[in-house]
Protein 1
Amino acid sequence: MLKLYGIKKCSTVQRAIKYLEEAGVTIDQCIDYREETPSRQLLALALEETNGKPKKIINTSGQLYRDLGLKDKLDQLSSEEILDLLQDNGMLIKRPFITDGTKVTVGAKEDILDGAWIN
């Protein structure tokens, strides 16, 4: 079962959905970040897959990132602190966040989507 977390009206999310659907991939559930964030376990998996580079899973172009002053603080936060931030603030998570429960991709780059979800 493939779950996509994001904001349905976001153009990046729409582009990823269209790309996957055109490739024959079914997205079983779309979940709005503002209502439910991915589990801490999935967020930790995403962070682990980036070799501890949080900017790869954080929406660095979002208003909340700027409001929290994370540009200057991010490198000083522990993994646990980063996970706390992401779990408490879904808008900080780069869109879309896609998972089947065992693997995770973040973002809409076609090479990432191809490698993970398109056979």
Protein 2
Amino acid sequence: MNATHTTELMNTLGRQAKAASALMAKASAATKLKALRGLAALLRANVAPLQLENAKDLERARAAGLAEPMVDRLKLTPQVIETCAQGCEQLAAMPDIIGEISGLKQMPSGIRVGQMRVPIGVFGMIYESRPNVTIEAASLSIKSGNAAILRGGSEAIDSNRALSRLVQQALTEAGLPLEAVQLVPTTDRAAVGQLITMPQYVDVIIPRGGKGLIERISAEAKVPVIKHLDGNCHTYVDDPCDVAMAVKVADNAKTQKYSPCNATESLLVARGVAAEFLPQMGAIYAAKGVEMRCCPEARAALSAVAGAQLKDATEQDWSEEYLAPVISVKVVEGLDEAIAHINRYSSHHTEAIITRDHMHAQRFLREVDSSSVMVNASTRFADGFEYGLGAEIGISTDKFHARGPVGVEGLTSLKYVVLGEGETRT
């Protein structure tokens, strides 16, 4: 597609989304409920056709030599489709927050002032690999009363087209505008550049993918971006702690799955518990093939662990998001050093403390500057589904209105409303 055609296409999608967003903003809760339940039913009724389209993407990916873990992310298995359908139903069952007025206060002048929850308008979503994101984004868009322009990865184009047709069918059958959720139909990379520079149509951009994609979009966008660049998450094992609990949680936080952004990449251990905790933890990591990149003190504590893959940590390791069976390990004096280390090196995604000391837990919650902070729990819980948001459109490490997993509320804004009975200002 030439540049002129791409520009025309994106302007058309933008205009249509803007018009649709006005209709979505005033759609009733019942209408949105019908669309979400209808989409769930359509997904379940179309498993075989969806898999046929998905097979085209998988064949292309393998022919292009895509690594098998990447191919795996492209798969629309019956289980993945069922999870998407359940996500739609969960969102449908949640209260509709659009139009809610909160914090209404009576002023001395007689007026009452509050804030109303409203949709953002139009969001653009740019994502790679996983076609299920098409349904997550579409369902959140419907529930939050927004319009969405979706740009999936070229490797999943057939799957995404098939899914978006079902979304538009569900919208139409519920009496909502089919342009409320539009998929960019071209794989032309120029479409992304156009989408992120259309503030006249698009209110916010949400990139979901590798660090390179997100850095490019953050640098070039002329529209606000909800983003996280990487997930260098920490688990800090405090003194005092329940060592058995610490081993269990730190194991899950690292090894339950290596590729997500909420997996722990750095393990900090208080000096007072290091001699007891590290050999036990090291034995589990060694058995699972996890390489440990250690400070000198941690390496000494782990040196007797049979089969342990130990390396000396470099300065870069403290900032690294591995997304692999590798973890950095550092012994710290205690809570103060742990908090200082995390605030210096973390990507402000998710951090956890394992402790028996209530005051330490409270300080960690207050002083650690990340979008999710946990006490005695695995960092792997940092997820919209696990937080009861129904679904998430991504995780934000920014500090404006959306921070942490972004669900329906993150796709809305607040406007002030004033209720009066003829008051005038003196």
